[in-house]
Design brief:
The protein has helices at 11-26, 32-62, 91-113, and strands at residues 69-71, 74-76, 117-118, 124-125. With 143 residues, it is mainly alpha-helical. The strands form 2 sheets. A two-stranded antiparallel ribbon has the order 1-2. A two-stranded antiparallel sheet has the order 3-4. The chain is flat.
Length: 143
């Protein structure tokens, strides 16, 4: 049996709500900052709800084993967590990592200087490439 809370909005209703805000911003009727905050609030609530049910959903899908699971017209697959390796306990890796950090620091300094730098030892330091990320908004409580 599929339980659906009494106040469930279907996907089309969500899209309509979002589109109303987007259109309002585009037409200059809705302040873009207000719309952004509204969407951030929805995003936070949705993220929180997903985190709460994620473990139960993974457990439910795991119960089906290799069987194909299709619900609401969508295939649901269980993707096992990826395997990762750590090398931090290996002395040679630590040594090389420290050297890498020194090179990065020197290259960053050269980039800030704006040109290749020659050290007292005669070593030429090539500047790092500088890239800029996308501008974004940071939201915090007003004091």
């Amino acid at each position: 049996m599929d339980y659906k809370p009494s106040k469930t909005m279907n996907t089309t209703e969500y899209y309509d709500h979002f589109f109303e805000y987007v259109t309002g911003v585009e037409e200059g009727i809705v302040n873009p900052l207000d719309a952004y905050l509204h969407f951030k609030e929805i995003e936070g609530a949705l993220k929180n709800a997903m985190e709460i049910i994620e473990e139960a959903a993974v457990s439910e899908r795991r119960a089906y084993g290799k069987e194909e699971v299709i619900r609401q017209g969508l295939r649901i697959e269980l993707v096992e967590g990826r395997k990762t390796y750590s090398y931090k306990h290996i002395a040679l890796w630590q040594e090389i990592d420290e050297k890498r950090k020194q090179i990065e620091k020197a290259a960053k300094g050269a980039a800030e200087f704006g040109a290749h730098v020659i050290t007292n030892d005669g070593e030429e330091i090539e500047p790092a490439e500088i890239r800029f990320g996308k501008d974004h908004l940071r939201i915090s409580a007003a004091r």
